């Protein structure tokens, strides 16, 4: 049944071929049939071109019929005006986000006429202050070194990289295009918790190996962590950093399952699981249960990988729990080389609605909290911070740097660059452009060479835009952005400096016991290095001290 459904998208092309033959047969009865021959033969030639061209995934999967999409795009300004006049949203996610990615990926002009968006007048609007004496950055190859005092093999990471997306969720062709583009552009590709596949290895781009609760690629048969398998894969020169996934923004605190029907031989090889059997990611880790055990696990992975940078990714939930981890760093003397803060804005192939919309801390607040907690503990200078969560525009990346990030990751932006049209069919295996599917026929629509170049283009043009706005602010390096470079109009229409909204708190204030106006010290006192469980409190106090 699924095979028949997969072929349905070719009905328009097949129909034009049949109608061409029918009109040829009708020539014996009437010369008027030549009109039909001309029309349908022309459409058949269009369909033949569609399935053989390499630039448009939609047309490769939907020959002839796919042109309807481009026809509608051609009248987009009129459609957009209709929605604006009727005060309706066009779609769940911003068309502007996709548009700017497509333009940068295709090296097209991205300038727009007629000025700013309407929300420039709205309360809640944020803008970047600029200098009367702008600068011109000397390079677009912006990098930061990741590696603390215990790291023997630090990595100079680009300021913009591909965020975690697993093979299994994405097709082999999508992984190859992303990784080849990363190699071409000199930036990093996070594997996602699905581990390192043959598609990653064959392209050779720099990898951040993400290890989730399923320990895919480094697991024993019972699903526990295997030090031997980890050391074997971590030895690859392609693996530059190791990232322990504690939670992700789209569905923090929620496990996952890849149905057995989707566990192909390639996926089984990458993850170290049986072919055709449900592949489960538990909600929590089994290799550690306490903050101290997490720190020791970090130290163990650093040794097993011969000194490569090791860190973790999380979406902030209970703030006290993150402080528990920081206290464990101080107690054990083992700190991660980096922490990636994932905002709840992050996407996924499928997540329960409540998790997607209402669980987890947004990136802005989470990033500021992690940055200030590390400052308060005196650890910020040795731990790098990455930021992830709908970071597509250079402005959003710059704001993340101002709040404390050292680099940014994006999944959504790079998915757009390889042709994602947000069909929101990721969980159905029927992705129309071959990005989020394991169907080989659909995946062939994504031509690796063409899309890899677009991945590299998108990265380069985003770095160019980031360099330009840094220069406009009088900076030579985007990492120089600070909160005071931004101004914010609050709900009362008052202009508030960014350093008042998201201030940098004093270095060492937590370990010194200095009170603060934001409740950090109260939570710090309740945090325990030996347990994530909160201390016993009267019920009346427990609600507001988490």
Word description of this protein:
This protein is α/β, with parallel strands linked by helices and 546 residues long. Helices cover 40% and strands 11% of the residues. Helix 7 (95-105) packs across helix 19 (448-472), helix 8 (172-185) packs across helix 19 and helix 12 packs across helix 13 (319-332). It is globular. The two termini are 51 Å apart.
Task: Walk me through the topology.
Blueprint: H1 2-7, H2 11-26, H3 33-52, H4 57-61, H5 67-74, H6 76-85, H7 95-105, E1 126-128, E2 143-146, E3 155-158, E4 160-162, H8 172-185, E5 189-190, H9 198-203, E6 207-211, H10 227-234, E7 239-245, E8 256-258, H11 265-271, E9 279-281, H12 291-304, E10 310-314, H13 319-332, E11 338-342, H14 353-358, H15 363-377, E12 384-388, H16 394-402, E13 407-410, H17 412-417, H18 440-443, H19 448-472, E14 486-489, E15 495-497, H20 498-501, H21 520-526, H22 539-542
Parallel strand pairs: 4-13, 5-6, 6-7, 7-10, 10-11, 11-12, 12-13
Antiparallel strand pairs: 1-14, 2-3, 8-9, 14-15
Helix pairs in contact: 2-3, 7-19, 8-19, 12-13, 13-15, 16-19
Task: List key phrases describing it.
globular, 8-stranded parallel beta sheet, 22 helices, 546 residues, single chain, alpha/beta, 3-stranded antiparallel beta sheet
Shape: globular
Number of domains: 3
Strand order of the largest sheet: 4-13-12-11-10-7-6-5
CATH architecture descriptor text of the largest domain: Alpha-Beta Barrel
- CATH homologous superfamily name of the largest domain? Aldolase class I
What does the largest sheet look like? Answer: 8 strands, parallel
Report, as a whole number of angstroms, the end-to-end distance. Answer: 51 Å
- The top-level CATH class of the largest domain is Alpha Beta
User: Level of helix content?
Assistant: 40-55%
- Mean pLDDT across residues: 86
Give the beta-strand count. 15
Give the amount of beta strand, in percent.
Answer: 5-15%
Q: If you compute it from the alpha carbons, what radius of gyration comes out, rounded to the nearest whole angstrom?
A: 26 Å
DSSP helical segment count: 22
Using the coordinates shown, work out and report the CATH topology of the largest domain.
TIM Barrel
Low-confidence region ranges: 75-92
Structural class: alpha/beta
């Amino acid at each position: 049944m699924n095979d028949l459904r997969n072929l349905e998208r070719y009905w328009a092309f097949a129909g034009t071929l049949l109608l061409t033959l029918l009109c040829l047969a009708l020539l014996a009865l009437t010369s008027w049939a030549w009109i039909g021959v001309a029309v349908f033969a022309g459409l058949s030639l269009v369909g033949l071109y569609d399935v053989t061209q390499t630039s448009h995934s939609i047309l490769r999967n939907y020959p002839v019929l796919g042109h309807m999409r481009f026809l509608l795009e051609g009248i987009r300004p009129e459609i957009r005006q209709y929605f604006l006049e009727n005060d309706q949203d066009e779609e769940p996610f911003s068309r502007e986000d996709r548009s700017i990615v497509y333009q940068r990926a295709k090296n097209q002009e991205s300038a727009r006429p007629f000025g700013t968006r309407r929300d420039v007048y709205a309360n809640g609007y944020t803008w970047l202050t600029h200098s009367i004496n702008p600068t011109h950055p000397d390079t677009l190859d912006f990098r930061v070194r990741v590696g603390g005092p215990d790291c023997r093999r630090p990595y100079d990471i680009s300021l913009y990289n591909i965020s975690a997306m697993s093979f299994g969720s994405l097709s082999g062709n999508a992984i190859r295009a992303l990784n080849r583009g990363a190699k071409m552009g000199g930036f990093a590709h996070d594997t996602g918790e699905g581990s390192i596949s043959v598609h990653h290895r064959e392209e050779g781009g720099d990898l951040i190996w993400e290890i989730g609760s399923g320990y895919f690629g480094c697991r024993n048969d019972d699903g526990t962590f295997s030090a031997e398998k980890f050391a074997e894969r971590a030895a690859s020169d392609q693996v530059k950093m190791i990232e322990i996934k504690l939670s992700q923004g789209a569905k923090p605190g929620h496990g996952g399952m890849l149905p057995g029907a989707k566990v192909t031989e390639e996926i089984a090889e990458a993850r170290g699981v049986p072919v055709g059997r449900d592949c489960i990611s538990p909600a929590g880790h089994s290799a550690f249960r306490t903050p101290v055990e997490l720190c020791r696990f970090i130290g163990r992975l650093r040794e097993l990988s011969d000194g490569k940078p090791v860190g973790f990714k999380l979406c902030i939930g209970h703030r006290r729990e993150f402080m528990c981890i920081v206290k464990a760093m101080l107690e054990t003397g083992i700190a991660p080389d980096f922490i990636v803060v994932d905002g709840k804005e992050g996407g996924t192939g499928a997540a329960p609605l409540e998790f997607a919309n209402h669980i987890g801390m947004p990136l802005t607040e989470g990033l500021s909290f992690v940055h200030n907690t590390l400052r308060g503990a005196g650890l910020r200078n040795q731990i790098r911070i990455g930021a992830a969560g709908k970071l597509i525009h250079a402005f959003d990346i710059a704001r993340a740097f101002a709040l404390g990030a050292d680099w940014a990751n994006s999944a959504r932006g790079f998915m757009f660059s390889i042709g994602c049209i947000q069909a929101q069919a990721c969980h159905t295996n029927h992705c129309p452009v071959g990005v989020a599917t394991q169907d080989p026929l659909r995946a062939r629509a994504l031509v690796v060479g063409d899309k890899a170049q677009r991945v590299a283009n998108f990265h380069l043009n985003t770095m160019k835009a980031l360099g330009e706005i840094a220069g406009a602010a009088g900076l030579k390096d985007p990492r120089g952005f600070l909160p005071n470079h931004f101004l914010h109009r609050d709900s009362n229409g008052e202009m508030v400096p960014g350093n008042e909204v998201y201030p940098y708190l004093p270095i060492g204030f937590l370990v010194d016991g200095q009170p603060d106006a934001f409740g950090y010290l109260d939570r710090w006192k309740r945090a325990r290095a030996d347990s994530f469980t909160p201390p016993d409190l009267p019920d009346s106090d427990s609600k507001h001290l988490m």
